[in-house]
Batch of 4 targets.
Target 1
Amino acid sequence: MAVAARPRSAGSRSTGSRPGRARMARRVLKPVAFVLMALPLAWLAAQWFLLIRQGGGDLGINPIEASIHHTGLWALRILLFTLAISPFTKLTHWTPLMSIRRMSGLYAFTYAVVHLLLYFGLDREFSVAELWADILKRWYITLGMGALLLMLPLALTSTARAIRTLGARRWQRLHRLVYLVGGLGVLHFWLVVKGVQLEPIIYGVIFVILMLARLPRLRQAAGFKKKAGH
Amino acid sequence: MLIRKPSAFSLPEREATPEALYLNRREWLAGMIAAGLLPASALTACAEAAPTPSSLAKLNYTSGPFSTDEEQTPFKAVTTYNNFYEFGTDKGDPSANAHTLKPRPWTVTVDGMAAKPRQFDVDALLKAMPLEERIYRLRCVEGWSMVIPWVGFPLASLLKQVEPTASARYVAFTSLHDPRQMPGQRGFVLRWPYVEGLRLDEAMHPLTMLAVGLYGRVLPNQNGAPIRLVVPWKYGFKSIKSIVSIRLTDKQPPTSWNLSAPREYGFYSNVNPAVSHPRWSQAKERRIGEFKRRDTLLFNGYGEQVAGLYKGLDLRKYY
């Protein structure tokens, strides 16, 4: 249905250039995205509430492990979503999505921080010595920790003022670190599972596609067009 | 040229839910429930109910030796939190998917270096063998543990019936290989069938048992029906499930996780807090149902019984 109804003519390109509609889309998109990306965290909080209050909830038999996996997965999903925004916008020329890129990145950071805190607090029971031993000895912890530390400067310089202070060019160069963060995040997941499992491979493939979409030559071949005057 | 003007309410396809979100619609469903936007029955409607103890046949047994008096892990946890990759890699997958396994009729072949190799029908075994309950600790290599009341008999009493020859040194076990019954075997997470092995003296040790039930009932499919190994001083993956073949041999048999990642999983895989898994420490464990972790014990606390088997063996080298 949706495919059949998709406007195929050049007229469809006009949506992005209609400032009124784009502004409308942004106005709706931002709060919707804010609520949607908060839902997994709200769900987790609700499950812990149910678990503590009445021994119920959907966290299963090992709620600590489930919580750590839940926040880690969502950090990675939202991070990949963030990385998808630019190529998607370039492909479709639908600019309103760009308005939630910063929010998405900050959400990815938030989930990663909660992920670390749950692991450090509930799994390592706030033992700095154990955490440090893990970082030194366990490859997947080293990579995950590296990814989180690299996100910190990005989160701190996410304000408009930081862009002004750094200058757009330097700011952009700094924020290319997000590619490294994505790679480390995918590897972190890849290394933690036992055996050959599909899920981390899927995330890995999505990440590689999102990186390839950024290569200028491939972008041209795939039909990304640079609009004159933009 | 046809120019279609989409009406104000029509959504362009690019506004469709991103695939990553779509693929996790169950979690979104759960999120909606948490937010109070959907009734909780929305999720339970698609989840399969775990079998209650009453739906499984009762067994006749006496209480056996070596039982711990520690608090037993609840039946629900024992039967819904499983590693049985033949039915999927999530802990909840086996209880959701194992209904496709047909545990009867079932035969176990016991052969190799034996004077009297033979096939055993599981129902006949259940009648012929005096069954006993043994409450054992189970320590998973992933760092969690349970206390499970198994029902079964010593592996030694089965092996004695086939009379191992003097040259037999090891015992090789094989799980069922049937992707129709075990959907996880269509994937490539491990090489199928699952195989495991013990040294003959480990296999003959009185602690080593073949379990046919838990909590007084026949084994639920997700716990390795109809017959599985239980070696309580080794990590859980050594206790192979849904066994179809037991073979006496003079060579150390291949084992599934060792084939998959030899640096991480050795042939012995004795529980040992001092020898860490390359990716995580084994010093502590989370007993299912407990909030704080507890110290892991050498040989899972069965050192008094089994330490003698490994005298002079470098447990760091032979992990």
Note: Residues 75 and 215 of chain B are 7 Å apart (CA to CA).
Target 2
Amino acid sequence: MVAIVRAEGVVKRWGSTEALKGASFEIGSGVTGLLGANGAGKTTLLGLILGMHRPDGGRLEVLGRDPWTLGPEVRARVGYAPEHDCLPDDVRAHDVVRHFAEVHGLPKAEAQTRASDALWEVGLGEERFRAVGTMSTGQRQRVKLALAIAYDPEVVLLDEPTNGLDPVQRDEMLALIRKVGHELGIDVILSSHLLEEVERVSDSVVIVSDGVIARSGSLDDLRGVADAELLVRVDGPGDAPAVLADAIAKKGTKVRVDGTTGLVVVTVADDAVYDVVRDTIADLGLGLRRLERRRATLEEVYLEADSAHV
Amino acid sequence: MSDARILERGYRRYDGPRLGHAHAVRSVIAHTLRRILGLRRPARTKVLPVMSIAFAYLPAIVFVGVIAVLGRFGAKTQARTFVPRYSEYYGFIVSALVLFVAFVAPEALCPDRRSRVLSLYLASPLTRMTYLLSKAAAVFIVLLAVTVGPPLLLLLGLMSQSAGPDGPVAVLQVLLQILAAGVFLATLFTALSMGVASLTDRRAVAAAATVFLVIGAGVVAGTLVFALHGSEGFVVIAIVRSALELVRHIFGDRGELRGVGTPALIVGNLAWTLATAAIAVVRYRRLQVTR
């Protein structure tokens, strides 16, 4: 994996408060969710990635460079859309996007063209010459996204990009973020406290809990790390699930019966569990109707990771 | 058959040159100049900058006009006495400068903090100091147009009416004096503007604070010199008076304050310039943008 961001034991203090307590992780290409409760240290981490703050300890690399000592060089290649409203009301959307494309090093003519293209890309082609102050919250969030991608950064940092959006606008924004990460070829770091939206758009996740990196890795791997379970439904007499559960338990495998659904829920410690379940069902002469591995949701992963650090 | 075409507006990667830090600084200067002057913005935002600039230029236009009209009637010598000396002209300019610094210049800094655009600038190749320098440069350029332009116009106007300095050496000397006085005033009032505007994100508060500072400094200096019978040197505390006095010295005129020499005036004006610039620098170094 080519690391976009690599952190080793990064510490950041604000006065007596330790916002990051030795964060170590790697962020690769694609869309990465930076997940954590409000105040967990996500925005501090984004500030460090942008070279706005000096780490008090540890080592941080962004695109292979130290963002604190080579800040301007790093920031020229990183897009950023902050959580808060940050656009001047009395300036036209196109003007503000063009200006920041120039500030990030694009020649004037190129900035002019790309400002239009970026605004078209986020669905504001027809609205691009309107003053930002006359736009809705959803449109302003899109302008921020256009501003962050107009100068073709290698990676874009989006801090709570769905703040203040209604459900429809949120869906549209998440679709745009996926498009940026997967179709436009710009890696995305999406900071959010909303599990569901991180789960919907991210390929990888870094979970920040109270200044500590509780988990990090691809979404698939993280779900696998959490207690994966096998859901089994069998045909047979009414007590068949209980009989099956007893038989499996006797073979040393953790198992329970879900009283509501009648499903036998077997904990998957390793792949041998599949053989145990198959053989037990065959030994008992039961009919197998369903065998499905239930993967942990991101919420479960998050809660488990969070509780481990409280 | 229609000429209409569907254009593919797809996003393209950019592999052209990235122009670096200096380009970013130039871009911010140009953007701030447009913003200060109200260009590409609603008409109401153009009123104050146009007024400030008009206040500075109008007297020069009137004086040259008077010389031209009276010259036709053979009264050029009498008309010349009506026109102020170059150093006296700065009285008009300082009014425009104070108006500009109080009501227009805060536009360079205050809205960026109020609308939190500053966080976008600091997430760009700019640093806090290059951002501040770019903003100061934009204010300085506009102020330079106000401090150098009108006396230069007066000089050119008088020369066109054969009422200017005698000979190229005298012209060059006045030209250099105009440039020196203009750069000095623009630097002082840029620093003043940046210092005050760095303390608030509200333009109205910055305007009130600037007026209060200019008047307050004059009152303090007046109290020390006249009411408390202190040294006349305390006059250097009065921003406008001290600046005008130094301008008189630059033009080689006898100042109004006989007891205050050029070194004292330079120290006084330099102190105001450095102190207000330092306020802006310290404020922006410590400003919390995101955490």
Note: The mean pLDDT of chain A is 89.
Target 3
Amino acid sequence: MRTRVALFLATLLSAFVVVLGMGAGPASADGESIFGFLFQIKKSERVAYEGVKVQVKGPGGFSQSTTSDKTGRWTVEVPGKGTYTVTVDDKTLPKNVNLRDPSKKSLKVPVLVGQDKPVLFPLGKSTRKITSKWNQAAQLTAEGLRFGLIVALAAVGLSLIFGTTGLTNFAHGELVTFGAMTTWWVSTGKVPFLPDFGGLQFFPAAIIALLLCGAFGWANDAGLWKPLRRRGTGLIAAMIVSIGLGIFLRYFFLYLFSGVTRSYPDYRGAKGIDFGPISLAAVDYWSMAVAVIVLAATILALVRTRIGKATRAVADNPALAAASGIDVDRVIRVVWVVGAMLAGLAGVLLGLAQGVNFQMGFQILLLIFAAVTLGGLGTAYGALVGSIVVGMFISVITLWVPVELKNIGALGILIVILLVRPQGILGRAQRVG
Amino acid sequence: MDWTRIIVNALEASVGLQTVVFALAAIGLNVHFGYTGLLNFGQSGFLAVAAYGMAVTVSSFDLPLWLGIIIGLAAAVLLALLLGIPTLRLRADYLAIVTIASAEIIRLTVRSVTFQDTFGGSDGRQAFAGDFYAINPFPIGNYNIGSFGFSERQMWVLSVGWSLVALSCLIVFLLMRSPWGRVLKAIREDEDAVRSLGKNVYAYKMQSLVIGGVLGCLGGFIYGLGQASIQPDIFGTDTTFFAYTILILGGAARVAAPVVGAAIFWVLLSLTDNILNEAINAGYVSNSVINSTQVGQFRFMLVGLLLMLLMIFRPQGIFGDRREIALDAR
């Protein structure tokens, strides 16, 4: 039975040479050992390789070599628990059989007390693509642009709210998460506290989610921020309130959504479409298009429409705007609704790109701050430019720095910008005290 | 419901390791935010550099623990200088963003795979507290009154921790009574007025940042020694905001406020955790409403709510004076 399971798994991993089978062979009674099988699945036939040399080195100068038997199996009894280095001698492999990843011919494996540790060396054609630096740079720039546009949606909202009310909203990331999560809920039909209704297509679900985001932004302002403004709460107090709100919402989302990352049911494992050296999924192209259209519409609305002009007037000088007959509270309400919808859209698109989880918004919050600061606090265009710069920057620097360190780069530029030009690229110097 | 256990746990929390650690972190914040009006959102970074300075020295480089503690302290001072030199001239909310970003940079660096050999990645560092427990004066055994009590290791780390808390409070008390402390408070109230009197505001702010950072970083040492291990993610932004909640709960700009705040805060969290868990086990609360893994999430929701409500309705906390809180942007 075990062998059959092993064979089934091996078939699944077709063309791998796999070392399989917890207990697939005779294990030593109590001591520890490391073992594996060297074989490849060719046309669902298992081809084992005999006489391949494997060396195991370990703590205390332990070193032992062995060769694989007829079934491709090799076993090395080791003296105890610890970390061992297992090296397969690829010269003893038959010609035209190679490791799939030639850089992985040595593996470090931890062995626990009493464990028979299986070790895997995938064999077969090399799957590693060799791409030139330029092609990689093009691909990363495209990915960076996509991410930058998503950040821009959230950043424009944050910047508008800051501009009109002076609030540095630490709960803005939660608006992003809210957009992504409601889309997931509506598209799967598993809305908390409601009976399962089977779910909608992605598009109507996203639109319903955005409307809910708008309502959420309205509720934020009507329920919390407007009363606080009425009381004359200071800006720093309001900022700390937004931190509290952010923590509360984030863990409330965790309670409702649980800690896993999920993707929208309609968009799982989309294929790449090549465009020169750039390969993005179709959904990436249209999510970029949606972001561009919405951002353009927002900027246009700010420049052309009455409410847009009123918004800029309030951002410039609320008292003067009020004196010239602008209903400041109404403008702020509109800004909250629009800002929350923009953030929600950012969440929907971010969910398409990387899946939905409870802290996705919080994870990009500092990047949003970096973008807004880079562009200049309180200016919508600045936020847009800053976001795209930040998005591309953190994507392209992965050419030189490990992916996990890219956010450090973004936070680094945030700090540098605040030091050398605190008003940002497009900001005006007198904003900074 | 086992009320004895709930109450014993709450009592232990009131003097336990978390209370000590967060009391120290909040004492440091009190110097920054309470007395000087500096909005430092990167307090967890000070705890992190201290704890990692100590742990890495011992476990990665095999050097003695006392040297590790000196390196940790030096790292905290260095961090304060690095943060302060460029940012102290900036507006309050800018300082907040720079400090939170710096703390995140520190956390992301120490948890990265790239530097795993030095910092241990997301597993952090272990096996550095041996020297500390080797000089434990408490003989092996349990020190209990009824079922309330601690092991000899806990007794040792808590005695050291509470001594540090007492010492820090004394330092803050003496400093803030001095002319130097009055200048800090004056900076909080009106920076320009202080400047017009010929005081170097920038230097005072820097001194405040260093002293608060060093006091706060003691919490990092105590945490590392108490747990005998450190992980990067305990130094996330939540830690900083917990410390803020504690400080505001106690009352900013009061010497003993962080200590009382920390004790109340952790008792409150212990009570909600334990009461919820007991209620779930006893079947009073249905598993569909909340299960035992979700109890920890309620703790965070509660903290968020507490921070909001305090800030809105009682920004001066329990002991503070509303007129003494630096809450207006300048």
Note: Residues 133-165 of chain A form the longest helix (33 residues).
Target 4
Amino acid sequence: MKLSTHVLEEIKELPAKYPQPRSAVMPALDLAQEELGYLTPETMTEVAEALHLDPGYVEGVATFYTLFHLEPIGKHRFYVCTNLSCMIRGAYEIVDHVKRQIGVERSDQVSADGLFSFEEVECLGACEYAPMMRLDHRYHYDLTAEKIDQLIAERRAPVPSPRRGEGQGEGLKRSPTPLTPTLSPKGEREKKPRAPRKKKSDG
Amino acid sequence: MAELRGSFGDQPHHILTSEFGTTDLHKLSVYESKGGYTALRKALLDMAPADITNEVKTSGLRGRGGAGFATGTKWSFINRDAPGPKYVVVNADESEPGTAKDRYIMENCPHMVVEGILIAAYAVGANQAWVYIRGEYDEPHRMLTEAIAEARAKGYIGPRPFGKDFPLDIRLYRGHGAYICGEETALLESLEGKRAQPRSRPPFPAVKGAWGRPTLLNNVETLATVPAIINMGGAEYAKLGTAKNPGTRLLTVSGNVRKPGVYEVEIGKTFRHVIMELAGGPPEGRKVKVFWPGGSSAPVLPESMLDMTTDAEALAAAKSMGGSGGVIVMDDSHCIVKAAHRLLQFYAHESCGKCTPCRIGQDWAVRTYERILAGEGSQVELDTLQRVSDGLQNGRCLCGLGDSGGWVIDSTLRHFREEYEDHALRHTCNVGKVAVSA
């Protein structure tokens, strides 16, 4: 998977927006991840070359932050908070339910249809609505098994139904454009496994 | 927007949230109809920069991010006349477990944040401000983006705000998931496009901050309070709260309470008032067992200390702190050892790896908790926890993340020794116990 020309052009324009060009590295990785779904060593090298940085440096940044994904993720990823405030209001039961319903065991797995993956995350800063999670760039509050089922069903439906829920309402409408990186269609992931990462020594 | 939870609207001692709940408060026209941007106008046209800083000093405002440093004093550290660029950097990386108040402010009243930033920037002589906002905060990011665009269209952000020859600009920068970025020097590293590992100080950010330039770093709530202080006057603001910790602050009350929410509280009220009255107390048939008074990093207090007041001095005397204002309440149906284990997992996960005691110690604690919770504990494990806790604290690490994990261990051990011994020595869990000592 190569970054498309227009994304590379966009990345090359980023450094000028900051007092020092290096600040562009995370916004650039964002653009790359948005296009390809996750970051491979090849992608990070492409980003590094576009920014005139060392590939090892870019990889060092990408591996530090949890929002950069180094493995394929589902089209819709459940980021379920399990920190204390959510934990004592049933977050682990929600995680178990998500796992069961999408048929995966671990955060590095993707559901068979490529649609879903999950991750337990640390506090997302919406503790008054615990248990809660982030899904498709939106917060979902007061989670129950039924709410999870509904969110999954909506995303499995061939025609996306209007999103409902309490995360946002009027005045906060956002266009229903795809918010998560679009992954290759079903099956393609198996055909194109990411290149094995070269083992490299630290520092 | 989701239904607001907490206290807001026109109630006594509501400074920040008195208009929260107003339809479309996030829009500039509505914010202005409620008196918005009068403080910026006053600051730019009627006040000298030093007067603004003095007004903030007079108010006694202390940083609401966690450390509680005197805001006006911090502003005065910036040499306004130093040549070259200076920056205001806004810490909107709210990640302290149990804390949601900055999100609440940014979603409900982004212009209040924008106005506070602009006043601060003028006061310290910075023409550009950067808001470092955590990557997961999609909605607050959108609200701030729109607010900045509106303020720009109105000329409040631009080359001549209110006709004043002082260009002001605000930019946003998104974080990418790292608790450590809430630490100010780690945040600066991240803003500069690096792995977020804290810097050693000195030099302090006021001298050498973002991109090597003098930088004022303030939390969202701190800056959101500034317009009110300019409007009402520092002396008037200082009448609220306690003498050493004036004002109101937003407490996020979460966990086992009937009405979790973000409550604006006059500093100095008791936690009993906050937890039992405002947040409705624990669920039917349950008792408060323990609470974290200021985010997960603030040492725990048992139920017997509910009458503790919310000001920094009282909390320090009880070996805790007001921190980020995240009040996490746990009732007697939950096990303190499991809670501490979960928090140590958090600190282990979020350790940036720079300082050995934190990198090794947090993980060591997690493994010790695992043995205890698996029924394989003994006195050795209890001693290990205490030793690791001691090794994490008291300046052995560059930033507070190390101490925070240590405080969780230390404070839960101190107040719930018997429960730890049940697990480690008797291999049972007797959830339902109350604190054995205070």
Note: Residues 173 and 189 of chain A are 33 Å apart (CA to CA).
